[in-house]
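quick one before i forget lol
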Amino acid sequence: MVVEPQSLQSLSAEELRELTSRLMTQLRHQSALLDKLTHENALLKRMKFAAQSERFNPEQKSLLEDEIEADLAAVATEIDALQEAQAPAKLEEKKVPKRAPLPANLPRREIRHEPDSTTCACGCQMKRVGEDVAEKLDYVPGVFTVERHIRGKWACAKCETIHQVPVDPHIIDKGIPTTGLLAQVLVTKYADHLPLYRQEAIFGRAGLAIPRSTLAQWVGSCGVQLQPLVDAMRHELLQHRVLHADETPVSMLKPGNGKTHRAYLWAYATGAFENTKVVVYDFCESRSGEHARRFLGDWRGSLTCDDFSGYKALIASGVTEVGCLAHARRKFFDLHAANQSQIAEFALQQFGRVYEIEREVKELSANQRQVIRQQQAKPLLDALHQWMLLQRQKVPEGSASAKALDYSLRRWEALTRFVHDGQLPVDNNWIENQIRPIAIGRNNWLFAGSLRAGQRAAAVMSLIQSARMNGHDPYAYLRDVMASLPMQRASQIGELLPHRWQPMS
């Protein structure tokens, strides 16, 4: 909050007291946050330098060190932003560490930045008196190049002033990587699931082995800078009436004892029939339903989900439950695979007929879909329900057949809710498809190095998967967005979301 001194004179005593109270509250909040981040920073440094004593195999150790470096960079970025907000005037005093020059053998491409006009405002012709050169490292698969940004200095003898094209802000302030190289690191880590130590080796074969500690610092800084995009995506997601939800386990490391415990990556997506395609992942330490309630907040729409108990409190608070017919069908499929049950065979035939109708109405409007469902799917499902009730009376308690029948009968209203609303999906396969890349990636991750690392991965993967859902190349999307983000107004950040972004020509 910035208050102009002139405006204070027009405030009454009561307004001044209220303003003082607000400023003190804001200051206490920022001080508490700064203390929290400083404590986390100290803890991460202790973990980093104590890592040699932990009993991990070499591959696990390298993964942990990568995450600690990334977490350190993320915390440092947040602390810098907080200190900038509290004391912007002191930023100029901050010393920039010197870095080694980029290798001279790498091919270079000059990009010149000169004023549109070399005529001074006073009318005199300016003379070129020098230039500033900044080199940035770029990468396309297999080849490193160097961008030489040359900014000429132009002086007016009469005005005794120097004119120069200003430096554009960068996703990593004064960093050497281009957004193309940063996008390559993020996509390779979070879409192709290659850890940073493997990327270090790949870059080494291309002529420059970037230390994994440096790569990790870039990842951590980018994660912080991209978070506002993910926050905007979550806000957009919650504007929709129909959502999907699912969750999948991910191991998370406890560095204190070198063991892992089961954390969860929750996934939320817009409805399968929505034009806006968005998925947001939320990394949490457990499978507690409290995480879903916290994420959805005051949202009260139709949620397509499985029979997991964690969603029950949401349903009780006013969220409309939409069941997954694929889960109900799966119970009978497993039953049939186990003992060729005739009950399961008949149920599978009826489910198959419903899915045939769904394939026919998939591309229709919601109103047309609802009409056809009422005419064709509803009679089928009503007859199937009556048949299930009769069969349930014939099978013994506790049998596999009873369990398959009970799953559908207990949730029948939720399972058939799609018949009465053309915008509702028949199952939760849409979100399961969006969470599948996470399940594939688990084979390479081993574990998430920390809660912060898991949350960072969830944020970047939300952007990558949403870009895929909208038909974009994740690399091209991240490269362009990271180039635009530092100059984008906070009120217009929604223009950079995957479902609105258009590739630059």
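fyi Residues 103-168 form one domain.
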